[in-house]
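pinging the channel bc i need a second pair of eyes. not urgent but kinda urgent?? the chain im working w is below, pasted from the shared doc
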Amino acid sequence: MVAVTAALPAAVPAEAPGGDRSVVAFDADITVGEDGVVSVREEITYDFGDGGGGPAHRSLPLSAPIDGSAEQSLGLTGLTIEDDAGVEHSEVLPDGSSVRFGSEGGDDQLTGRKTFVVSYAYETLLIESEAGGARLYLDVIGSGWEVPVESVTAEVTTPVAARAVDCYAGAPGSRDECTGPGTTTGAATVTFTQDRVAPGEAFSVDVVLPADAPVTVNEAEPVGGGTGAAPGDSELSPFYIAVGAIAGVMFMVGVAQAVNLAGSGGSGRRGGYHGGAGGGIGGGFSGGGGGGGGGGGGGGGGAGGGGGGGGGG
């Protein structure tokens, strides 16, 4: 998930379990480079209500199985907090794949609405489409949230104009179009929007480039000796907000859980990392929707089947 921003419709915050926290808006700016690196910048607006809870965390997966392979590195690099909204004790954690906003014991700065900005890149997120061009199949949100995300925007910029684009929203595996299924806002920029993503639903974008596009699909390194089976939910990396010292409410967004990407059709499963025989690299807690045949030869589609971002809570 790389890149964000665009005008968002007004949103009414939803009350989160254990308090009045909510996700008002999630904007992702996603940029695909000729070198195959997918750069992401996320603007995440939280409503912490009257405060009283623990910190917010954003976690990103480091690896996942793709296209039925053994688990492999996604090449996460450069996770950075660009704007901490003035919240002290915000930091990138030692694992290099998570950030925290606020202190673990509770933070009186976490009140009202605050917009955090994080950026990072994935070096081996792209896959090759059936037609031979680079493909970005990204679940921007993930399906493991416990509160709704009221407004989502994903802006994808590529070196050349895309050959085909699709966008899905709904239950994992759904082929229902998102609210804004891909508006060309520049020579090689497409903007996708969704008014609301309910708990348990996903929001995925599928962008396929021409076979002759000057974009490298980098080979990913295998991780361990896995067989490509999907990790259990306990291995997923959520974006969550702690309501108390140890409790958490899933509710934020996502980049990257992976998924099989070549088969036929179908529903995803909660937790991402694969969606039967289809899908892409799934976003946080998303299930991989998948399939061959959509996206203008892009190999499938369905909410929750893409790669990218993280989860939330």
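so The first strand starts at residue 22 and ends at 32. and Residues 65 and 71 are 4 Å apart (CA to CA). — does that match what u expected or am i reading it wrong
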